[in-house]
Amino acid sequence: MREVREEISQIQSVVLHSQQQDGSWRFCLESSPTTDAHMIILLRTLGIDDERLIDGLTARITALQQENGAWKLYPDEAEGNLSTTVDCYYALLLSRRYEKKEPRMARARAFIRGKGGLSEANLLTKFAAALAGQYKWPAHFLVPVEIALLPPSSPISFYDFVGYARVHLAPMMIVADRKYVNVTADTPDLSDLYVNPSIAPGVYPHRLLERFTRDGQSFLSSIHEYVLRLPFLPGLLHELSLRRLEQFILARVEADGTLYNYSTSTFFMIFALLARGYSLRDPLIAKAMSGLRDSVCQTAEGAHLQLATSAVWDTALLSHALQQSGLPASHPAIQRANRYLLKKTATYVRRLENSQSGRGSWRLGLFGLQYDESGYRRHDSGLARSTQPVPPG
């Protein structure tokens, strides 16, 4: 037992020495290379020649490639992930560091085609390909933009989607409605990733279209009936819907320029702004890119764009773990962590979006938030435990 206590004491010391002055713990939130691919796509699309960053991003992407040519969405995925592999294949070509004839690219291409090709990739990957003119936009997106005009009190509302979904869906609805395409001199030809033609399913698999055709008619009818009652011509309604979605996005831009502090939603936000007529050098887009750059961390493999920053999660979990290991709640490090977490919770409560939606009721619960300087985030189950003393035994 003495050796166990000594080891615990050493770990406690390491953790305590890594605490920040504001009471938080901050570590790199490592995830799949999809976000790294997104960053390369944005840099090339916007004409930002940050070759050092691209070097770091491509280093991590290539380091994570498997022997079979695939990339994984999560470490213990069996063979690899089709969509992640498409994203990485596209980004490596776009980076100007690799050509299709190279062995690693040939292995990736064989894996993609062996899994059914680009037509079988997920929705986000097809959107990224469609934005580059490498996939056919569907005639209509599953969620019509007019849903943005429905009030929260209606039977069906945009606010029926959870917050995380809304901030991704809003920019995706705009680019899909506009069928926006941005092709540059660096845009690679991805036609060799097709096994079946892309025109048949659009951005959706057949099975999703069939299910929606069967089950979604009442959904579309409800929207149509409400919109017809609005005192506007159809063309004006459509533009008003797009403007409402744009306003929804801009109202949720964080102090660092990102959309809700997620790199994935920020990726689609930038393309949505371009689709709405913003210039490549617009201050909003420049600020978003600055926020994404600040979210890049260095890993053993190379540079990595975090999906989101995790300071609040890290702080809540480590504070709880330290107390479980025997550190008293009165310890200065625990008190500093508590103050940091409670400050973030107070900010979250002041800006709690659901309290403004008019849908149902809410009460203060257990919060775990993502970090940003202005910041509010999701609810989770870690914070309340971390700010209370751990009972003995």
UniProtKB/TrEMBL annotation:
Domain of life where this protein originates: Bacteria
Pathway(s) served: Secondary metabolite biosynthesis; hopanoid biosynthesis
Signal peptide start and end residues: none
Matches recorded under Pfam families: SQHop_cyclase_N
Domain called Squalene cyclase N-terminal: residue spans: 8-299
InterPro entries tied to this protein: SQ_cyclase_N, Squalene_cyclase, Terpenoid_cyclase/PrenylTrfase
Family: Belongs to the terpene cyclase/mutase family.
Descriptive protein name: Squalene cyclase N-terminal domain-containing protein
